[in-house]
C-alpha cells in the first residue's frame, strides 16, 4: 500500500495529538488524585459511581429529616416540661384552696393566680417550632390548635402525627397530637378541669357538693337555659330512694314536678312549682336528699341551687365537678403530661439512634466513593511514563522520516 506525503503527515499528527491528550488526562488525574469521571473512560465504574452518589443524596435528605424530627421533639420536650410545671402548680393551688381552713380572700388570690397559669398553659399548648408550625396540632399546623371560645378552650387540631422519612422503608414521628397531651379530641380538655376548679372556687368560697339534704322542705332552683335539657338525679325521702329523669327549660319545670310527684309513693316527697322563683318546692314528712344530678344543658358550674330548711342556699354540682373530682382531674392532667413527655423522650432517643445509623451509612458511602474515585497513583505514573516515552519516540521517528527526500533514497 502506498502512502502519500499528506496522509503520512495527517496520521502522525493524529497519533501525536492522541498521545498528548492521554498525557494531559493522566497529568490532570495525578494532580487531582481522582480518576477520570467521564463515562467514556470507564462505563462500569461511572455507573457504580452514579449509584453511590444517588445513595449519598438520599442519605443527605434522610439526615435533614432526622435533624428536623430531633429539633421538633426537643422543642416539644421543653414545652412539655414547662407545661408540667404549670399544671403541677395549678394542682397544688387546688389542693390548698379546697382546704376547709382556707379563708375566702386566700381563695380569691388563688383564683387569680390559677387564671394566669391557665393563660400560660394555653400559650404552651399553642407553641410553634422554628418554622412557625404548631407543635401540638396534629396535621393542622398552621392555625392555633387550642382556641378560646364562649364555652372554654376547644381543640381545633386532629389526632394526626407528622412523620418524616429517615430511610428507604422507615419514617419517624416528628411530634405528638395535642389531643394526646392536653385532651380535646373527645371534647374534654385539661382547660375544662381548670375552668371547673375556678367555677367551684367562686361564689362564697365554699366548695359545692354533689349532695344536699334538708328536713321538711327544700327549694330547688335548677340552672336552666332557653333550650330544654335532659336532667337526671337521685331523690331520697322518708319512704325511699329513686332515680329520676326529666326535661326542663327556663320558665318550664313542669316535667320535673310531674316526675317527682309520680314517685311520691316510693319516696314520700312531693313537689310543686314556686311562683316566686320559678323553681321547685319539695316537701316531705322527714329528710329530703338530692344527689347525682346531671344536666345536658349545663357544661360547667353548679347545676342547681338548693335552699334547705335553714335558709342558707347551697350550690349543687354534678359528681364530676365536685372537690375531689376536680382535684382528681387536675392530677390526671399532670400525669398525662408526664407520660407524654416520656413518650417524646422515647421518640427523641429513636431519632438519635437513626441519626447514628445514617452517619454510619454515610461513612460507608464515602469509602465506596473513594474506592471508585481515588486514583491508583503508581499505576497512573507508570502509564504517564509510558505515554511520554511513546510520544518522544513518535516525534523522533517523525522528524527523521520527514527530513529525508527522494535524493536520499536515490543515492
Can you put this structure into words, describing what you see?
This protein is α+β, with helices and mostly antiparallel strands and about 400 residues long. The protein folds into 2 domains: about 60-200 and about 325-360, f41 fragment of flagellin, N-terminal domain (Up-down Bundle), CATH 1.20.1330; about 210-320, no CATH class. It has helices spanning about 5-30, 45-95, 105-125, 180, 190-200, 255-260, 265, 325-375, 375-405, 405-410; strands at about 145-150, 150-155, 165, 170-175, 210-220, 230-235, 240-250, 270-275, 280-295, 305, 315. Strands 5, 6, 7, 8, 9, 10 and 11 form a 7-stranded antiparallel sheet that branches. It has a two-stranded antiparallel ribbon with strand order 1-2. It has a two-stranded antiparallel sheet with strand order 3-4. α5 (about 190-200) runs antiparallel to α8. The chain starts with a helix and ends with a helix. The model has no long low-confidence stretch (mean pLDDT about 80). It comes from Marivita lacus. It holds the Pfam family Flagellin_IN. InterPro entries: Flagell_FlgL (IPR013384), Flagellin (IPR001492), Flagellin_hook_IN_motif (IPR010810), Flagellin_N (IPR001029). It is found in: Bacterial flagellum; Secreted. Keywords: Bacterial flagellum, Cell projection, Cilium, Flagellum.
Amino acid at each position: 500500500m502506498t502512502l502519500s506525503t499528506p496522509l503520512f503527515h495527517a496520521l502522525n499528527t493524529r497519533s501525536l495529538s492522541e498521545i498528548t491528550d492521554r498525557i494531559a488526562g493522566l497529568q490532570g488525574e495525578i494532580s487531582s488524585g481522582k480518576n477520570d469521571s467521564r463515562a467514556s473512560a470507564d462505563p462500569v465504574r461511572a455507573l457504580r459511581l452514579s449509584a453511590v452518589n444517588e445513595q449519598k443524596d438520599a442519605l443527605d435528605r434522610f439526615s435533614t429529616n432526622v435533624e428536623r424530627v430531633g429539633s421538633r421533639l426537643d422543642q416539644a420536650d421543653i414545652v412539655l416540661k414547662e407545661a408540667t410545671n404549670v399544671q403541677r402548680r395549678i394542682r397544688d393551688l387546688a389542693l390548698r384552696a379546697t382546704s376547709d381552713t382556707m379563708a375566702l380572700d386566700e381563695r380569691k388570690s388563688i383564683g387569680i393566680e390559677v387564671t394566669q397559669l391557665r393563660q400560660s398553659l394555653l400559650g404552651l399548648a399553642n407553641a410553634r417550632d422554628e418554622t412557625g408550625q404548631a407543635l401540638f396540632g396534629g396535621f393542622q399546623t398552621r392555625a392555633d390548635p387550642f382556641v378560646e371560645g364562649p364555652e372554654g378552650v376547644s381543640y381545633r387540631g386532629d389526632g394526626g402525627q407528622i412523620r418524616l422519612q429517615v430511610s428507604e422503608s422507615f419514617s419517624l414521628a416528628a411530634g405528638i397530637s395535642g389531643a394526646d397531651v392536653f385532651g380535646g379530641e373527645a371534647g374534654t380538655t385539661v382547660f375544662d378541669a381548670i375552668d371547673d376548679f375556678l367555677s367551684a372556687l367562686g361564689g362564697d368560697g365554699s366548695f359545692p357538693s354533689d349532695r344536699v339534704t334538708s328536713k321538711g322542705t327544700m327549694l330547688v332552683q335548677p340552672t336552666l337555659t332557653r333550650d330544654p335539657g335532659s336532667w337526671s338525679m337521685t331523690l331520697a325521702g322518708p319512704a325511699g330512694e329513686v332515680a329520676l329523669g326529666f326535661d326542663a327549660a327556663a320558665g318550664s319545670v313542669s316535667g320535673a314536678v310531674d316526675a317527682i310527684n309520680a314517685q311520691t309513693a316510693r319516696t314520700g316527697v312531693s313537689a310543686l312549682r314556686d311562683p316566686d322563683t320559678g323553681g321547685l318546692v319539695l316537701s316531705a314528712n322527714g329528710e329530703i336528699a338530692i344527689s347525682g344530678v346531671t344536666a345536658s344543658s349545663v357544661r360547667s358550674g353548679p347545676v342547681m341551687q338548693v335552699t334547705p330548711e335553714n335558709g342558707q342556699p347551697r350550690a349543687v354540682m354534678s359528681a364530676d365537678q365536685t372537690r375531689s373530682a376536680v382535684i382528681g382531674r387536675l392530677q390526671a392532667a399532670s400525669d398525662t403530661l408526664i407520660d407524654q413527655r416520656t413518650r417524646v423522650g422515647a421518640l427523641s432517643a429513636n431519632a438519635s439512634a437513626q441519626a447514628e445509623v445514617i452517619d454510619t451509612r454515610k461513612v460507608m458511602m464515602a469509602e465506596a466513593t473513594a474506592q471508585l474515585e481515588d486514583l491508583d497513583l503508581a499505576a497512573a505514573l507508570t502509564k504517564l511514563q509510558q505515554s511520554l516515552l511513546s510520544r518522544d519516540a513518535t516525534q523522533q521517528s517523525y522528524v527523521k522520516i520527514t527530513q529525508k527526500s527522494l535524493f536520499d533514497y536515490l543515492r
